[in-house]
Design a protein that fits this description.
The protein is α/β, with parallel strands linked by helices. It has a single domain, classed as Alpha-Beta Barrel (TIM Barrel), CATH 3.20.20. The protein is built from 8 helices and 12 strands. The strands form 2 sheets. It has a 10-stranded mixed sheet, covered by helices on one side. Strand 11 (about 205-210), helix 7 (about 220-230) and strand 12 form a beta-alpha-beta unit. The longest helix is centred in the first third of the chain and has 14 residues, at about 75-85. The mean pLDDT is about 95. It binds iron/sulfur cluster.
């Protein structure tokens, strides 16, 4: 297998979601997804348009992007990350492996992560479905932020069994579970999600993330979000409500 991968972007920014919110990270964004949530235009791997170029930030945080032809080889990615870490020491907390759904590239990640992890800790952002792929690279991860995808927000059937298996594998790698909630989210979806989390470890943090509408407004009232938090608190030790901060803060 080649050691090159189609990427959308490599850049430096703050983490805009989850428990590491506000910390500076280096982001490696992979193309395409394995599902099609109704609020997202990423597209499935087999039908998505793979970009001809990856946008690479030349200096971290300076927004001086260059277009580099896809796929990018591991050596190029390593050179970027090592140079940034050398020139901007102590700035970045970790390297975020994100998408789309990065576990679609588990074969590539199995080659890349042993080389990347000595540079900075590795933070995986994932929809929490591809558990077999997760098991292939679990040894090379330091943090996992996984979704539980609700039918009420995705417009898809639930992935309850997959999420349970996924979290069982993720449990040793500082997992955080994120759930996007909307005005359509019924109580039972939160209860069921929390039962799954509690069956693994009730101290695993849960983040309820209000859906952001295309116009930038939240897709759920604050009152309803608080009700959903109250439900989650019956099952779990730590449930936070954190919106997608980069959607209104101007960060990438
Ligand atoms: S899992 Fe994430 S990337 Fe995939 S379709 Fe849903 S929102 Fe988009």
């Amino acid at each position: 297998m080649s050691d090159s991968a189609e990427l959308t972007e490599i850049f430096s920014s703050i983490q805009g979601e989850g428990l590491l919110i506000g910390l500076r990270q280096l982001f490696i964004r992979f193309c395409a997804c394995n599902i099609t949530c109704q609020y997202c235009d990423t597209g499935k791997l087999e039908s998505a348009t793979i970009p001809a170029f990856c946008m690479v930030e030349n200096s971290p945080g300076k927004r001086d992007f260059s277009a580099e032809p896809n796929p990018l080889p591991l050596n190029r990615v390593l050179m970027l990350l090592r140079n940034w870490q050398r020139d901007y020491p102590s700035v970045h907390h970790s390297i975020s492996i994100t998408g789309g759904e990065p576990l679609l590239y588990s074969g590539i990640l199995k080659k890349w992560l042993p080389e990347i992890r000595p540079i900075l800790p590795v933070y995986l952002e994932t929809n929490g479905i591809l558990y077999e792929e997760l098991s292939m690279i679990i040894d090379y991860l330091d943090y996992i932020c996984m979704d539980i995808k609700l039918p009420s927000t995705t417009g898809l059937a639930g992935f309850w069994a997959e999420h349970r298996f996924f979290l069982q594998i993720a449990a040793t790698k500082n997992p955080v579970v994120k759930i996007v909630v909307s005005s359509e989210t019924p109580d039972w979806e939160i209860s069921k999600s929390c039962e799954i989390i509690a069956s693994v470890d009730k101290s695993i943090p849960l983040i309820l993330q209000p859906l952001t509408l295309p116009n930038g407004n939240p897709g759920i009232s604050s009152r309803r979000t608080l009700e959903l938090q109250e439900i989650a608190c019956r099952y779990l030790m730590e449930t936070r409500i954190i919106p997608q901060t980069h959607k209104f803060s101007g960060f990438l």
